[in-house]
Amino acid sequence: MNNIDSDSGRPFDASPINPVAVPKEVSAKSSALRVRLAKILAASGVKTAGESGAPSHFTFGIDRIDAALRGNASADGLPRGALHELHAAEKADATSAAAMALLLAERCRDDSKPVLWITQSGEARRQGKLYPPGLAELGIDPASIIHVAAPDSIAALRAAADGVRSSAMGAVIVELAGKKPKGLDLTATRRLSLSAQKSGVPTLLLRSGSDPDNPLPTSAFSRWQVSAAPSIPLEANASGHPAFDITLLRHRSGLYGLSARLEWNREHRIFGDIGHEQQSEDTPDLGIIPPPSAMRAVDQGTRAA
């Protein structure tokens, strides 16, 4: 994997994007309505025109979840050209949240394009670095990841802004630790959202050490809480697939309360909805499953993802 420090000082154009071209022959009233609609859609963070020809949305691969995430959109799942936020439920769940970010990036990226992973160098020393054998166990090619070690959170956000603007990236993941990382605010995340909308690059903001119940305000299209879950043993009591508990905390269409227990199948590169299959009759309709207190052990100093 490559280690790159990005400290670009180039100015960023944060002007709104209008993806709708208004024909001259339409009436003035119709033109005004279309322009207004374009501005609303642009502000929502959804990519409305796919110049690259790539699908406008990506999915978990689970019908009930993808359909629920449709919201007011025209396709199931989550918009590719947008910012999505993932929070580790507890400190011990940081590895699971990192793995979920990578797996979502793997599901929505073009195989010919790399994933740009940006971390703070100090946090990487404390939490552990990406572990190539662990990536391979998830079915992810370590060579498909470009790793950027930024000196601080401001540099990490700057590197993310540079990466998101490039359509050569399959996805961008920026990992920030702590409850209030310096530079993380509505302005910075708005820039990431607008860049993702313009380039169509899926952008994931990975948060560890944060407070999912009282997060910093951002312009993310969706916000998720992720924790480790016990896996289901395979035949001969072999270790099962990696499992996660996920809960939707925020969605631009106003959705909330969606939760699921998922497992990752590396052979087919899809998630399985194991929590829904095991639901009992007295489980609430929202299917919320309390996260376990700990996750499976990983090698010291390395990250299983």
From TrEMBL:
InterPro entries: ImuA, P-loop_NTPase. It comes from the Bacteria. Residues 277-305 are annotated as: Disordered. This is Protein ImuA.
